[in-house]
Amino acid sequence: MTPRGEGCNVIQRVVIPVFATAALVMAACGPQQATPAASAAASAGASAAVPAQQTPVPGGELVYIVTAEPPTFDAHQSTTFATLQPVSPHYSVLYKLDPAENVSKIIPDVADGMPQISADKLTWTIKLRQDVKFHDGTQLTSEDIKATYDKIISPPKEVVSPRQGAYASVDKVEATDKFTVTFKLKYATGSFLAALASPWNYIYSAAKLKQDIKFYEKNVMGTGPFTFVEYQKGSFWAGKKNPDYFIKGKPYLDSFKAVFITDVNRQTTAIQSEQAMIEFRGFTPQQRQQLSSALGNKLAIQESPWVCVNYISYNTTKKPFDDVRVRQALNLAIDRWAGSEALSKQTIVKDVGGLMRPKGPFAMSDTDLEKIQGFSRDGKASKEQAKKLLADAGFTADKPLTFKFLNRNVTTPYEPVALFLIDQWKQVGITATHDVKETAAYTADLRNKNFDVGLDFNCDYFDEPDLQLAKFYSASGLGKGLNLSHYDDPQLDKMIDAQSRETDVAKRQTLLKDIEKYAMETKAYMQPVLWWYRILPYNAKVRGYVIGSNHYTTMDMANIWLAK
Amino acid sequence: MGRYVIGRLLLMIPTLLGVAILTFVLMRVVPGDVVELRYSQSGSVSQDVIDRERHLLGLDRPLQEQFVVWMGQVVRLDFGTSLWTDRPVTEEIGARIGITIELALIAALIATLLAIPLGVVAAVNQDRWPDYAIRVFSIGGLAFPSFWLGVLMILGLVVWFHWAPPLIFIPLWKDPVQNLAQLIWPALAVGYRYSAVATRMTRSSVLEVLREDYVRTARAKGVRELFVVSRHALRNSLLPVVTVISLEFAFLFGGLVVTEQVFNVNGLGKLLVDAVAHRDYALVQAIVLIFSFVFVFVNFIVDLLYGVLDPRIRYA
Q1: Is the pLDDT of residue B44 over 80?
Q2: Complex ipTM, two decimals?
Q3: Which of A152, A153, A159, A269 is the mutation pick for testing B, counting most B CBs within 10 A?
């Protein structure tokens, strides 16, 4: 995309704006009013502001913003969207989320159909498409799938695989024949299909991995819809259409350019000036308003609940947070429903929910949720109950509970969420000091138990209890480094294992309800504050992208096209 | 003179060594490391993975061992490998240093072109409206942080012209107009602040010289005021101005750290901000060493310039 004005002469580009800027500085001192169009768009519920889908038009270059740079090109080793958003267009996966809904429907990518599962659910046989070629022209075979999954599930010493634990159920991966691969499981699990649809599991060439297991850390060579063109460090990542892509007619775009912009204001102005068309993670309500005002009907907006949430983590190894009554009181003091109302106008949080994403396939109904401590709509009664529990635990007006509330120095949504919590606690006589630290220091403190109470978070690519409950395992067991309330609870471990091995969805949901009540209320180990809400204002020329509930999947750009 | 130059150059070594030690220690005193950062996005990476990655990067080795290894590399001008990207630090810096130098030079040029004429005009018109206007202008430069000015500039351009500086850097030799369209704005933001100090110094220095006997003599001889100011007053008042401009050039590198971020200019300043945020020890240490070297070297050049500007100054 060419930024507007690039064809103008130097005077237009450089000289005139100098004087105009000076004028604007003065003008900026006065109040600004949103245009009627913008106000209407914002108040109407912006998720409706999406242009109707038409027949895809091939051609054009998508310029999009990525708000951080990839630390590695190897998604198997990465945990950040900063790898997925620029690099995914070059790769395929075995299964993926259907880009038409991008929430829960899993469809084959290089697999030729859904897996055939044995009666005991321990053998998963997957046929592969026979028309898939790597960008170097070699054909994709089952050996590539085996090499890829072996690297993820049982990596050699010199390779880190952060999601290795998610494949604990896998006994071995076999290349049964040239185009068939078989996963043998140690035990049946309800989450295995989701694990196979992980957006991090790029399919790599077995030959390249054999040559150098670290090849993909610094090189790009996949089977995806776009081939690699250039990576200019700190600036942009570019790719062009793969003419041999196995899905005929796709991708629609001729090329893409992912521009790295870390400054929040510059991200917004890049969309506003139409230098960039979209930023896939999303913006705040204020940024949505700013862009709506400026771009009017040139802007499309999609919004969606997000599989991301902030948790309140208590240092259960430290007094008085080892006392369940204190933790329960802190939870009861929070009026989440009122918080949702207020905070959703300021930042990217909205829905009240338990441990599973609200409105998601495993979510508890509001009726059930409201019966759990801290989730009642009667905030006043809950606060009274909190005061009583605090008094029982020895904290009164004369001897109030005071502590430091550890938070990350990231404004959205951490700071407003923390301020809301501190205010809620103040209403029951608790004094929490906002202890804001830079991400590295914050993470180190949380992991090293150097905190009282902290605001933790979790983001996943899919609504899957095994993913969302991973951090609830005992801190000295499977939850080591994940469970930042630092408790050990064999009973909860058993409950989580039981739901994981339950393949019947209805039975699994029942088990989940018990887990949620136990973890959030009975033991009050960790509680979600509010679930995040994704707001995506973007250039209306961009078509074919459906927001979904996460910012990790459908990043291969195969379905995206640009309206003329 | 030769001995003086060699002596000054040798003195740079302990200064830079001190900076190296200080940076090394400070980076490690701050809690958290690159591994925490690398996996902090997900919130669901186990301690085993973290420990393994730390071991692979050598962060579990004793501090003194890490320091000796690093210093051994530095004396061979090998700054090691970025802990965040696993690429040579020299490669990471090499890709950006040219942009920062160009930006700094443009800013310095803007500042000098603004500061000297404004300073002289203010001095010549002391306590009249041009003097007041220039003083307000220069105080504004000191008061407004350049990054804030940068944000205003971008907003102004976008709101009024629906245009913003290009997001992607194009080298000067490929497309000078595009190059300038991107760099002129941060250079203005930084150059304005930079010019403020120099304007005030030029004004006071010229004022002082204008009161000298030889200026009165020149006027008495009937020399035109333009020549009195340009040949007698300005030349003789340049010494402190050059000092300020040169030292500010070194400070300018620091000013660019935030401004590059605001304008998304892919320079050394932006790299440093990212490297600090990522706890990329190797990269931070190398960039701080470069900044320190620039500072020390500019000081050295200023000292040498004194002799050129004022023949009375001689180095033993």
Answers
A1: no
A2: 0.84
A3: A269
- Non-local CB neighbours of B107 within 8 Å, separated by 6+ positions: B186, B187, B188, B190, B191, B194, B252, B256
- Residue B49 burial (CB count, 10 A): 22
> Are residues B53 and A160, on separate chains, in Cβ contact within 8 Å?
yes
DSSP H or E run through A82: helix A81-87
Compute the distance between CA of residue A471 and CA of residue A150 in angstroms, rounded to an integer.
24
Q: Judge whether A193 and A178 are in contact, CB under 8 Å.
A: no
Q: Tell me whether A15 touches chain B (CB under 8 Å).
A: no
Taking an 8 Å cut-off on Cβ atoms, the answer to whether B264 and A266 are in contact is yes
SS3 A233: coil
Cα B6 to Cα B11: distance, rounded to the nearest angstrom: 9
* Nearest residue on chain B to A81, alpha-carbon basis: B41
Alpha carbon A241 to its chain centroid, in Å, reads 27
Express each pLDDT in B254-287 by its tens digit: 778 888 989 999 999 999 988 988 889 999 999 9
Task: Please enumerate in sequence order all residues whose Cβ is within 8 A of that of A367, keeping only pairs 6 or more positions apart, or say none.
Answer: none
| Spatial separation of the C-alpha atoms in residues A449 and A526, rounded to whole Å | 15
Helices assigned H by DSSP within chain B? 2-29, 34-38, 47-57, 63-74, 89-124, 129-143, 146-161, 176-210, 213-220, 225-227, 235-263, 268-277, 281-309
Test B152 with A232 for CB contact under 8 angstroms: no
CA max distance for chain B: 86
- Pairing verdict, β A453-459 and A106-108: unpaired
* Residue of B300, B312, B204 whose CA lies nearest to B247: B300
What is the spatial distance between Cα B76 and Cα A329, in angstroms, rounded to a whole number? 60
Query: Nearest CA to B77 among B89, B85, B86?
Result: B89
d(CA A128, CA A288): 42
* Rounded distance between C-alpha atoms, residue B271 and residue B284, angstroms: 9
- Count chain A–chain B contacts defined by CB atoms under 8 A: 207
**Rounded-to-integer distance, Cα A109 and Cα A92, Å:** 7
Residue pair A561/A253 in contact (Cβ under 8 Å)? The answer is yes
pLDDT at A27 over 50: no
Residues A514, A517: Cα–Cα separation, whole Å? 5
Is the Cα dihedral A280, A283, A285, A291 positive or negative?
negative
Contacts with A20 from chain B: Cβ below 8 Å? 156-157, 160-161
Per DSSP, the three-state class of A428 is coil
Disruptive mutation site among B35, B264, B274, B284 for chain A (greatest number of A CBs within 10 Å): B264
The answer to whether A298 faces chain B, any CB pair under 8 Å, is no
What pTM did the predictor assign? 0.86
Mapped onto helix, strand or coil, the DSSP state of residue B81 is: strand
For residues A301 and A535, the answer to whether their CB atoms sit within 8 Å is: yes
Question: Which residues, 6+ apart, have CB-to-CB distance to A248 below 8 Å?
Answer: none
Beta strands per DSSP E along A69-179: 95-97, 106-108, 116-117, 123-127, 170-177
Question: Amino acid identity of A310?
Answer: N
